[in-house]
Design goal:
The chain is of the alpha/beta class and 249 residues long. Helix 5 packs parallel to helix 9. Helices cover 31% and strands 24% of the residues. The chain is built from 9 helices and 13 strands.
């Protein structure tokens, strides 16, 4: 049985239904890119997507009291579990990808960040400390990876984010009088000594390799975080949060 009617509402009960299978595919990057859609899970993220006008379809179990003024698909428990990546799913939203906006003056550049949790944390901090745009390298983890979306706690809806070639992008920034700072553990200026400017970009590097040499060569200044010598390094999410906090003062 593919579906049945519950109180005059169609309920999907089979994971073999074509519509259900197409939604399930959105857990895979290839299909997210093809359809320009992605999924969010949980009432909080669904509401955040709705507030930003990105929620296309709400998927919820039959009998749910969670309602939003948007197209709604009611599904049985087995279908909801099939679609979800969580152990105890509640609601799922099918969302349009976020449209690019003007880049603004305060830019964060991420060079090949690989861990979804790190990217989500960085996005939250970027919003907290008033970054206008986040620029991702082509090899950075997919913005719409479910773990990134959850770790960002919906903050990806509140900041401009785009993916592009970083070398070309940084050159354009320099031509438009942005000051370019790159994190570098082996020298440069301490974060507390950085002179703040109205237009700037901060480059944060890959978890293991740091910022690529070609990007370091484009930077106006290197910067580092002073810390106890017993600690060799910080997680990139933590380091980014500290830097953005200081730059926002």
């Amino acid at each position: 049985m593919l579906k049945y009617v519950w109180r005059d509402i169609m309920v999907y009960t089979s994971i073999d239904n074509k519509n259900i299978k197409n939604i399930k595919k959105l857990n895979i990057k290839k299909y997210r890119d093809q359809e320009s859609l992605f999924l969010v899970e949980g009432e909080h993220l669904v509401l955040e997507a709705y507030k930003c006008g990105l929620l296309k379809t709400l998927i919820t179990r039959e009998g749910s009291k969670f309602k939003i003024d948007v197209e709604t698909m009611y599904v049985s428990d087995n279908v909801l579990k099939f679609l979800s990546e969580l152990e105890t799913p509640t609601v799922i939203g099918v969302c349009e990808k976020i449209k690019e906006k003007e880049i603004g003056n305060k830019i964060l550049i991420l060079d090949d960040i690989q861990d979804p949790g790190n990217l989500g944390t960085i996005i939250r901090s970027a919003v907290a400390f008033n970054i206008d745009s986040i620029i991702l390298s082509p090899n950075t983890v997919d913005l719409y990876n479910s773990k990134v979306v959850r770790a960002s706690q919906g903050m990806l809806f509140n900041v401009n984010i785009l993916k592009t070639n970083l070398n070309d992008f940084v050159l354009k920034l320099k031509n438009n009088n942005y000051k370019i700072y790159a994190t570098y553990v082996n020298g440069g200026k301490s974060l507390k000594d950085i002179e703040k400017t109205e237009k700037f970009a901060i480059i944060m590097g890959n978890e293991g390799a740091g910022v690529k040499e070609e990007l370091l060569n484009l930077a106006d200044h290197y910067l580092y975080i002073e810390m106890n010598q017993l600690c060799e390094s910080l997680n990139v999410g933590v380091a980014t949060s500290i830097i953005l906090y200081e730059m926002n003062k």
